[in-house]
Design goal:
alpha/beta, D-Maltodextrin-Binding Protein, domain 2, 2 domains, five-stranded mixed β-sheet, 42% helix
Length: 304
C-alpha cells in the first residue's frame, strides 16, 4: 500500500531540527507517511499555498493562524479554515540591530525589516518598541520576508534592525551585531511556532495527519534527549550549512531550552496563546480576541 505523502512548508530555522531528525531516522516513514519539506520565503507565500492545497501542513507562527482566521492576513484569502493542531516552539525572538545602534533612542528615524507588517512576529517588535517609549511615527517598518532575507538586509545596511530566530541570532552576534532585546525579556510566555493545516484537509486525511504527528514527536523527543546532542548538532549542520561550527553550541543551547526554543511533547502553551491573542487584539484591526478554540484543535494530536 502506498504511503500518503505530505508536502510540508516551514520557515527556515533551527526549530526544524526535529523534522530533520525524523527524516534522517526514518520515523515519518515508519509511522506510515512520507514527508517532503520546503522552506518558505515569506508568510504570504506560505499562507497562499497552504490555502491552495499545494502544501498540506505548515510550520508557522501561531499568530499567522489567528490572522488568517480573522481576515487580517498579509494577503486576502477567502474561506480559509486554518487551525493549529500541535505546538512547536515558544521561540526567542531577538531584536538584532546594527553595531551603530546602542539604544532604542537610536532607532528613531530608521527603518526596520519585518516579514509582514501585520502578521507573525511583527506585533512582538511593536510591543518592544512601545515599551521603550517609541511610537509608530518614530520608525519605518518594511516587509522583507523570512528571517534569512531580513538578516541579509540588516547585514547589508539596508535596515538597522529586525527580529531573528536561531541560528540567525547567533550568526548575527558572532558578526558583531547587537541583541537590543528579546521576546523572553518582555513576555512570560509566548506561543511562537505551531503546526497548522486546513480543517477540511485534516478531516479528510486523518490517516496522514496522525502519522505525521507521531513521526514529528519521535524526532522531537530524540532531539531533546541530552544523550543525542552531538549527533543532533551534526544533523542540524548538515541541513543548515549556513550555521558555522563556532556558533553551533549557542544555537543548540537556545533551541533545546523550552523557554527559548522547542516545546517538549509539541504542547500548545495556553498562557502563550493568550499572549498572542492579547497582542493581536491591541495591534490588529479586529478588536478583542479571547476564544482559542477558534484557532486550535488538539483532537488529532491527542488521538495520535
Amino acid at each position: 500500500m502506498t504511503k500518503p505523502n505530505i508536502e510540508l512548508i516551514c520557515f527556515p530555522g533551527a526549530p526544524n531540527l526535529p523534522i530533520f531528525a525524523a527524516q534522517s531516522k526514518g520515523w515519518f516513514e515508519s509511522n506510515g507517511v512520507s514527508v517532503n519539506l520546503t522552506t518558505t520565503p515569506n508568510s504570504a507565500f506560505q499562507a497562499e499555498n497552504l490555502a491552495s492545497g499545494k502544501f498540506q501542513i505548515a510550520g508557522t507562527a501561531f499568530d499567522n493562524v489567528v490572522a488568517y482566521q480573522e481576515g487580517q492576513g498579509a494577503v486576502p484569502l477567502k474561506d480559509t479554515d486554518f487551525f493549529a493542531f500541535m505546538g512547536a516552539t515558544q521561540v526567542e525572538l531577538a531584536f538584532i540591530t546594527a553595531p551603530t545602534i546602542s539604544s532604542y533612542e537610536d532607532i528613531k528615524g530608521q527603518s526596520l525589516a519585518l516579514d509582514a507588517l501585520s502578521t507573525g512576529f511583527a506585533f512582538c517588535l511593536y510591543e518592544m518598541l512601545a515599551k521603550n517609549g517609541l511610537s509608530k511615527s518614530d520608525y519605518k517598518m518594511v516587509p522583507v520576508g523570512a528571517t534569512p532575507a531580513r538578516w541579509e538586509s540588516v547585514k547589508a545596511g539596508e535596515h538597522v534592525g529586525t527580529l531573528t530566530i536561531e541560528p540567525f541570532t547567533s550568526i548575527a552576534r558572532n558578526q558583531g551585531f547587537k541583541v537590543l532585546d528579546t521576546s523572553t525579556n518582555i513576555f512570560p510566555a509566548y506561543q511562537g511556532g505551531a503546526f497548522a493545516a486546513s480543517r477540511k484537509w485534516a478531516a479528510a486525511n486523518p490517516d496522514a495527519l496522525k502519522p505525521y504527528i507521531r513521526g514529528y514527536l519521535a524526532g522531537l523527543a530524540w532531539t531533546l534527549d541530552p544523550a543525542n546532542r552531538e549527533e543532533a548538532t551534526q544533523i542540524l549542520l548538515t541541513n543548515m550549512p549556513e550555521i558555522k561550527p563556532q556558533v553551533a553550541g549557542a544555537v543548540m543551547n537556545s533551541l533545546l531550552s523550552p523557554r527559548s526554543g522547542l516545546t517538549p511533547k509539541g504542547a500548545m502553551l495556553m498562557d502563550g496563546v493568550d499572549t498572542v491573542l492579547d497582542l493581536r487584539s491591541r495591534y490588529g484591526s479586529g478588536g478583542k480576541l479571547n476564544d482559542p478554540t477558534k484557532y486550535i484543535d488538539l483532537s488529532y494530536y491527542h488521538s495520535a
